[in-house]
Amino acid sequence: MPALSRKSAAIGLFLIGVGVILGLVVASDLGWLTFGHAVPDAPTAPKPAAVAPPPAGADRNFVEVAKAVTPTVVNISTTRISRLPEGHTGGAPFDDPFFKRFFGDELFRRFEAPKDRRERSLGSGVIADANGYIITNNHVVSKADEIRILFSDKRSLTAKVVGTDPKTDIAVIKVDAKDLPTIPWADSDKLQVGEYVLAIGNPFGLNQTVTMGIVSAVGRANVGIAEYEDFIQTDAAINPGNSGGALVNARGELIGINTAIFSQSGGYMGIGFAVPSNMVRSVMDQLIKGGKVVRGYLGVSIQELTQDLARQFGAAEAKGVLVSDVLADSPAKRAKLERGDVIVEFDGRAVENPTQFRNLVAQTPIGKKVHVKFFRGGKERDLEVTIAEQPKTIAQSESPGDEGGETRSSGAFAGMDVRELTPELARRFNLPREDKGGVIVARIAEGSPAGEAGLQIGDLITEINRKPIANLRDFQNVAGSLAAKEPALVLVIRNGRNFYLTIKP
């Protein structure tokens, strides 16, 4: 076959291949989602779940609330410019001289990739100040090159970023305007499950959309959306484009900023999450004042307090958090808090769980003196702590190898193996130096007491029943002295943090 014919055939096959690829791209399914931010370009929302009707006469109140609040919610349109390398043409085969000679340079200019690619998205925001400050989500404005704000009166203004806080997914932007309508703030700590709420935003670009639901839950954490989570869960319809919009109560007060949805389709499925107003306001004030968020620091590692741990540490009931470690040169260390203390009150607030306690500490102003109530040895105590600024920390985790000696045990430790801590293992798994002692969990049988208690492979055991474990001999002596049905209180280091577990045989 002549060379030209072969090349012509190759060109034909290439163009057919391009067409097939484009067809696949256009027809592709993005698949099932678990969690999604309320941003654009999602599939059409499924039919909303049924919501209980409001009480008699409430509809008129919601009409008035909607009228008052919708002007304070804005449409946010962002543009991000992705710049391609100089001389980029879309790659081979368009760079092949043969193709250019065959088709001509003019044709190929039409297929060249643009040097600037513009990515557009939509979201929502809430006017927080009459002088132009607007609250939204960090993911709405993150990496945006241009931010346009569309108001309810059809005005369109350019906004600039004042500050962002990815750890709560909150951002503050500002427009050059005066006398803007604002929304009153509610105390989100007083919010109760079952209260009626309205979600206002711009789903799918539909401006000033209002949906109604109830508060399904408060204090939602471990959702995987942000680092600091204390979400309000609601069944008010929240869809792509609602991110950054307002969640308001029946009095027309701001109780949260709509942030994300739980969805398997990208659309509304009856579960939405909003950052509570008290957290939003704290972040906003700091961003406006200093352009960044500074968080409080106590210097303790804490864990959930179970009934078993409460009995072990002399707490009156399973309320509060257990201190599993006190960090060196920290406010807690200077105030003489100790490992094993059960904190039940912080700065006049009852401590309910680790997430709530962590948020309380983080939102405490730097330098503030706070009172901490705790149980130690069965007695309630009180001390004063001066909160410091939170430092940056990094934790790593890996799985153990095969180095070192090994031992097996029975009773509470039946079905598990431990290894001697070696310098190599200490370096590999980011564990304390070997001279501080401990044994590494190397194997845990399914259904074993240790596995049921939450012990994991790679955990470093440093205490059993408050007796130090420096090596395998210590482990064998202490573990071997336990009665067949005697529970064991173990101090474990995991991911650089200490915590207690109770193992019941």
Secondary structure elements and their pairing?
Elements: H1 3-27, E1 35-37, H2 58-69, E2 73-83, H3 97-103, H4 105-111, E3 116-127, E4 133-137, H5 138-141, E5 146-150, E6 156-165, E7 170-175, E8 196-201, E9 209-220, E10 231-234, E11 246-249, E12 254-262, E13 272-276, H6 277-290, E14 296-297, E15 300-304, H7 307-312, E16 321-326, H8 331-334, E17 342-346, E18 349-350, H9 354-362, E19 369-376, E20 379-386, E21 388-389, E22 406-408, E23 416-420, H10 423-428, E24 439-444, H11 449-453, E25 460-464, E26 467-468, H12 472-480, E27 488-494, E28 497-503
Antiparallel strand pairs: 1-12, 2-3, 2-5, 3-4, 4-7, 5-6, 6-7, 8-9, 8-11, 9-10, 10-13, 11-12, 12-13, 14-21, 15-16, 16-17, 17-18, 17-19, 19-20, 22-23, 23-24, 24-25, 25-26, 25-27, 27-28
Give an overview in words.
By secondary structure, this protein is α+β, with helices and mostly antiparallel strands. It has three domains: 31-43 and 57-76 and 123-293, Thrombin, subunit H (Beta Barrel), CATH 2.40.10; 296-389, Pdz3 Domain (Roll); 406-503, Roll (Pdz3 Domain). Helix content is 21%, strand content 33%. The protein is built from twelve helices and 28 strands. It has helices spanning 3-27, 58-69, 97-103, 105-111, 138-141, 277-290, 307-312, 331-334, 354-362, 423-428, 449-453, 472-480; strands spanning 35-37, 73-83, 116-127, 133-137, 146-150, 156-165, 170-175, 196-201, 209-220, 231-234, 246-249, 254-262, 272-276, 296-297, 300-304, 321-326, 342-346, 349-350, 369-376, 379-386, 388-389, 406-408, 416-420, 439-444, 460-464, 467-468, 488-494, 497-503. The strands form five sheets. Strands 22, 23, 24, 25, 26, 27 and 28 form a seven-stranded antiparallel sheet that branches. A six-stranded antiparallel barrel has the order 8-9-10-13-12-11. A six-stranded antiparallel beta barrel has the order 2-3-4-7-6-5. The radius of gyration is 29 Å and the shape is elongated.
